[in-house]
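Researcher: Let's do a round of design. I'm pasting the structure tokens now; please hold your answer until I've finished.
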């Protein structure tokens, strides 16, 4: 099953790249292949991976209370393990993301859910006619909440992800995975967290405004999905710190309550990676 999934995904990604590569080349603002390869080789080994944020806000599908109004924060980093390129022009990375839900309005300020997401993978920069158009990453990742007994949650994914610049203002992304569910208390997690996600990121010409949409298709053929929408404004022109508003609607926001519906809006501070975020 895994072999068929990866073959199918490779075909889809190849078709996707063929459709979009020329758009970026003719759209202006593209980066030259040599400069990007040099940047990949010479950049610091340690850097940001996904969005890093610290946001606070209430539930909006029910009356806000101190139990459903919380802080959500995420720390996400990547460590490049190789200096020179590996076969097929790839680089080996170690990834780590930690996401936490903190109920600061409750007595004793409990951190109700803490999710750990390490991974390792190969990243390949993508080029078309000497222009950088994005990257492709094949990775193996684990996610768990570090709990025991009936509150324990964990699963693993073998995933292939792509980030593609359509124009200098628009990036589209997608990720598909083969799940390996080892948690005894979350055997149905793919019913709520699905097998793939997709979305886009739009940035203004002056790089101050940013809007992103991520859709996680849940299991089944009906139109069910988890949706994340974020709007951000860069505070200072030369920094990567943003004021951000995030809207989450669906299931699987955190591992502990992955099978419970959440509709939440939160406001706070966001720190983004250099070119684009991973999902």
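Researcher: That's everything. Go ahead.
Model: Designed sequence:
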């Amino acid at each position: 099953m895994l072999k068929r999934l990866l073959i199918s995904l490779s075909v889809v990604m190849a078709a996707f790249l063929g459709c979009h590569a020329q758009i970026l080349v003719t759209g202006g603002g593209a980066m030259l292949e040599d400069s990007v390869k040099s940047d990949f080789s010479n950049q610091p080994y340690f850097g940001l991976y996904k969005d890093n944020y610290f946001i606070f806000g209430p539930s909006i599908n029910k009356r806000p209370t101190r139990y459903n109004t919380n802080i959500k924060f995420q720390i996400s980093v990547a460590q490049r393990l190789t200096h020179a390129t590996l076969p097929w022009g790839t680089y080996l990375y170690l990834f780590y993301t930690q996401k936490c839900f903190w109920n600061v309005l409750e007595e004793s300020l409990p951190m109700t859910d803490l999710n750990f997401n390490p991974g390792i993978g190969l990243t390949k920069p993508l080029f078309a006619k000497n222009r950088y158009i994005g990257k492709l990453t094949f990775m193996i990742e684990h996610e768990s909440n570090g709990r025991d007994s009936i509150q324990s949650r964990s699963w693993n994914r073998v995933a292939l992800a792509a980030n593609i610049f359509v124009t200098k203002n628009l990036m589209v992304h997608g990720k598909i995975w083969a799940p390996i569910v080892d948690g005894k208390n979350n055997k149905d997690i793919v019913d709520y967290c699905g097998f793939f996600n997709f979305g886009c990121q739009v940035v203004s010409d002056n790089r101050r405004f940013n809007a992103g949409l991520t859709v996680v298709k849940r299991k089944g053929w009906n139109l069910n999905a988890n949706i994340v929408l974020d709007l951000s404004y860069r505070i200072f022109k030369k920094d990567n710190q943003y004021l951000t508003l995030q809207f989450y609607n669906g299931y699987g926001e955190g591992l502990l309550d992955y099978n419970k519906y959440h509709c939440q809006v939160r406001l706070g501070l966001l720190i983004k990676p250099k070119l684009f975020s991973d999902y």
